[in-house]
Design goal:
This protein is mostly helical and 167 residues long. The chain is built from six helices and no strands.
């Protein structure tokens, strides 16, 4: 039997909660105790967030700026702007790889606020609409991808001995 809109919305909320807040028991894709995006970013200084791990990799700050922009687009869409994603400029976040402490604090706060709004709204997204369903699931995957990328960058910035998991 296909999932109902409410069960799909609940599953989406669970996955978004895990990507932003970390792995609990049961955990669906992170190890139990692994930090989510919000906790991982809260433990970083602006210098760490701005450190480029290599010439061909972006900084954590640029990834977070990109995710905040994605969450802003989601908020606009949920607010009724049907063209938010059609007119998006995804390249801008990558042009700003460095942050000072004030900007890093602002980005982390905005990430947490917008993530909470998205998580709380997710069960009410019209998931019977194939575009809304695909976009919502795609966003969860997108945030998961960036969580993994940020974890890998952090290993390079702090050194491979960094503990990222409870394991």
């Amino acid at each position: 039997m296909p999932p109902t809109s409410s069960s799909t919305g609940g599953a989406l909320r669970t996955l978004l909660s895990e990507v932003f807040y970390g792995g609990l028991k049961p955990s669906w894709f992170l190890n139990p105790g692994d930090p989510g995006l919000i906790d991982l970013c809260c433990d970083l200084t602006a210098d760490e967030a701005s450190a480029r791990p290599s010439l061909d990799r972006q900084t954590i700050a640029a990834h977070v700026r990109h995710l905040v922009y994605h969450l802003q687009l989601i908020a606009r869409t949920l607010g009724g702007d049907e063209t938010a994603f059609e007119t998006a400029d995804w390249s801008d976040a990558w042009k700003h790889p460095h942050v000072d402490e004030a900007e890093w604090s602002r980005l982390r706060t905005e990430l947490a606020q917008l993530a909470e709004e998205w998580i709380n709204s997710s069960p009410f997204v019209p998931l019977e609409n194939p575009i809304a369903l695909t976009g919502s699931l795609g966003s969860a995957v997108h945030f998961g991808y960036h969580l993994g990328a940020i974890r890998q960058i952090l290993l390079q910035v702090r050194g491979n001995s960094t503990q990222l998991s409870s394991r």
